Amino acid sequence: MIAGKYRSRALRSLRGLEIRPTSDRLRESLFDVLCAGNPHALAGTVWIDLFAGTGAVGIEALSRGAAMVYFVESWAPAAQLIRRNLSSLGINAGFELVQCDVSQALRRIQDHGALADFIFLDPPYRMKQAYGEVLQLLSRSKLLKANTLVIAEHQKTFDPGATVGSLRCSRRLQQGDAALSFYSNSS
User: What is the torsional sign of CA 27, 30, 34, 39?
Assistant: First the structure.
């Protein structure tokens, strides 16, 4: 279920274990933290949703006022699912679906001159090495502004690192078996 403009609308998912959408409860906690009681806190922001899966986090950002969301998903069935979810909500602007691997997508988005306010990454939990690789790429990226927030969803028993390149973890929120680690640029 989505909050904000598209409140109470359900998103489709795929069967099996290839996609593990961010739970409604964890997503609600994430946006409660980011909005801190201000319903307009995300208005005009730019998001990058890496390993987007169903697109739920990016769609929630759009629903809460984000100006632009880059959905990055390399797996064709998931990319098609994101298209269907956006279409079912009548969302036809304010997003770009980048269907390639994360490093290629980040270069492509950077080449467009984008500067992100928020970057959310949620690789399949079994891809533990992806966290360090992507955080390292982001720490060297021109996509980050001084106040960009990078948020990693992961298993609560896994630690993606307190510091990765110029990114430093400033907060960790646990809920059930999942956790969110919040990183900011320390350089």
Answer: positive
The pLDDT, as a whole number, for residue 24 is 82
Residues in the chain: 187
What residue numbers bound the domain in which 56 lies?
22-32+41-93
| Residue 1 reports pLDDT greater than 50 | no
The confidence score (pLDDT) of residue 37 equals 87
Which strands, in side-by-side order, build the sheet including 163-164? 95-98, 68-72, 46-50, 116-121, 144-155, 178-185, 167-175, 163-164
Most distant CA atoms of the chain, gap in Å: 42
Q: What are the structure tokens assigned to 112, written together?
A: 């467009």
If one counts the domains in the chain, the total is: 2
Helices 24-35 and 56-63, interaxial angle, to 10°?
40
